[in-house]
Amino acid sequence: MERTLSIIKPDGVSRGLIGDVIKRFEKNDIKIIAMKMVHLTQEDAEKFYAVHKERPFFASLTEFMTSGPIIPMILEGENVIEKNRSLMGATNYKEAAEGTIRRDFATDIEKNVVHGSDSPETAAVEIAFFFNQFEMNER
Ligand code: CMP
């Protein structure tokens, strides 16, 4: 069993897409074992996206990610890192496959509705960023 971090970004929350995103996880045998709504500070966002610090879109990305509440979730399932990435589709929604979350809902390369960890190492770090052991529910 694998775990990954998913985030419904501020655009997904403000546009009323929480249910649509969660439905896709549940319909695809992915278990949500932790979930909350948080509003990141600028400092938190810069820490979370530290790997992108040198990218030209870093300032815009952290501004966007602090513009409203987000929903971080821990997803659990077999091969869930890859499964979540294929449900999300490519970062650029214009390149995302038909039927993916980003293709169906994203409006911009930045405002792409969801985030998902890209490897087991990243998943461990990203999960620990948002959740402690008492917030993870075996079920
Ligand atoms: P995410 O999967 O959360 O990882 C980094 C985020 O930066 C990405 O989704 C987008 O929201 C944003 N991003 C990635 N590439 C670009 C880009 N070229 N221009 C603007 N934002 C980007």
Major sheet: arrangement of strands: 2-3-1-4
SSE order, one letter for each helix or strand = EHHEHHEHHEH
The distinct ligands, each listed once, are: adenosine-3',5'-cyclic-monophosphate
The N- to C-terminal Cα distance equals: 12 Å
The number of E-state strands comes to: 4
Major pleated sheet: 4 strands, antiparallel
Helical/strand content category: alpha+beta
Unreliable segments (pLDDT under 50, ≥5 consecutive)?
Answer: none
The average pLDDT score comes to 98
Radius of gyration: 14 Å
Proportion of β residues? 15-25%
Helix content: 25-40%
The number of helical segments is 7
- What spatial form do the alpha-carbon principal axes imply? globular
